[in-house]
Every structure is written in C-alpha cells, then in structure tokens.
Amino acid sequence: MDWAPFGPGEIRVDLSCGIGPDGHWRGWYAVRVHPGALRRLGLHPDQPTAGALGVSPPGWWHAAAERRAR
Question: Where would I find the beta strands (DSSP E) of 1-70?
Fold first, then answer.
C-alpha cells in the first residue's frame, strides 16, 4: 500500500475487533503517524489547529451531506 508522503515506519494502522454492547461485531481503527513526518509536512502535535476547533455542525447538516454523497 502506498502511504505517500510517509516513509517506511512513519505510519501505523491498527485494527481491533470485538463484540459491542449490542452483541454485534465491531471494528476500531487506530492510525498513528510519527511526529517527525507531521513536522516535515508543516504539522506537529502541538499546533492549536492540529485538533478540531469549535463545535460540530448540527445533525441535519451531516444527514444532508450523506444524502448528497449517494
């Protein structure tokens, strides 16, 4: 798999599987990127904009975006 612009060992993707509270199987992904690779792209974990800012859009906005995507 091509992970450009990341080099070997700079990105890690893990998958955990298990039975959720409703009894159905679930999968959870965790993506980890080496901090040096982020800095090379002009990003770093200490940047205030590296995380989500403000509140999430309202539920109707998400629903409308999903309808348009189909």
Answer: 11-19, 25-33
* Distance (Å) of CA 51 to CA 6, 54, 56, 60: 20, 10, 12, 23
Amino acid at 36: G
Contact, 35 vs 12, CB < 8 A? Answer: no
Tell me 50's DSSP state: G
Report cis status (omega within 30 of 0) of the bond before 5. yes
Token couple for 46:
């200490």
CA 13 to chain centre: 10
Q: State pLDDT tens for residues 39-63.
A: 888 787 677 665 666 777 788 888 8
For tokens 């800012």, the residue is 53
Q: How far apart are CA 27 and CA 16, in angstroms?
A: 6
